[in-house]
């Protein structure tokens, strides 16, 4: 019987071009598996354009036992992919864990690493994230790590109901 790697063996690092295919696979696969998008949805093109994201933000990849299992995009106020970060905030987006690695603590460890990274940056006092109102498992994770919902910053893509919720974690 082969031992399953534990999240303590997780390596999280800045991704390079050699990682883009795996980031694309993980991100699209996770969003489809969770039902956040369906085949043919226009957002899949955004999720899949890893090269474009890498030109405007920092991409991280997480590896467990040498296999890519998660990715996330880190951005700052004023950058192309920033949706909600205000001055003094770091934002992460498109946190995706390979469905085969879910439940191993990979998402939690990745967010903890983001929080540690934010603490190491001068002028960053908080980390912000947008999460769909329907993403209850993500909300539980963020809450367990100390994020609080900031409903006055909730928003929507189309001017309809504000179903994109903002969560914030103060670092100082």
UniProtKB/TrEMBL annotation:
GO terms for molecular function: N-acetyltransferase activity. Keywords: Ribonucleoprotein, Ribosomal protein, Transferase. GO terms for cellular component: ribosome. Gene3D superfamilies: 3.40.630.30. InterPro entries: Acyl_CoA_acyltransferase (IPR016181), GNAT_dom (IPR000182), NAT_camello-type (IPR050769). The keyword Transferase applies. It holds the Pfam family Acetyltransf_1. PROSITE patterns: GNAT. PANTHER family: GNAT FAMILY N-ACETYLTRANSFERASE, LD18367P. This is Ribosomal protein S18 acetylase RimI. It comes from Arthrobacter cupressi. The lineage of its organism: Bacteria, Bacillati, Actinomycetota, Actinomycetes, Micrococcales.
